[in-house]
Amino acid sequence: MEWSKLPATRMVCPTCQRKFLLDETKTPPFCSERCQMIDLGRWLKEENGLPFEGDPGDTPVEYRE
Ligand SMILES: [Zn+2]
Q1: pLDDT per residue of the chain (65 residues) written in tens, 0 to 9
Q2: Ligand 1 centroid to 41 CA: how many Å?
Q3: Burial level of 51, CB count in 10 A (0-12/13-18/19+)?
Q4: How far is the CA of 26 from the centre of ligand 1 (A)?
Q5: How is the cofactor bound (predicted)?
């Protein structure tokens, strides 16, 4: 028996929603290079498709006391 003594970290791929173990991927948090590229492509497409207008929609608001 050569089971790892450490429990594998379970991840869910943000691109394809596939469940995988962190040990199985070289491209965390994605399950594969393919999914990493898909995510990157999506990101670049948004970047190119929509001119940046300073919309803070999904940017965390900086909090100051
Ligand atoms: Zn994936």
Answers
A1: 565 577 889 999 999 999 999 999 999 999 999 999 999 998 887 766 655 555 556 666 677 77
A2: 14
A3: exposed
A4: 12
A5: Binds 1 zinc ion.
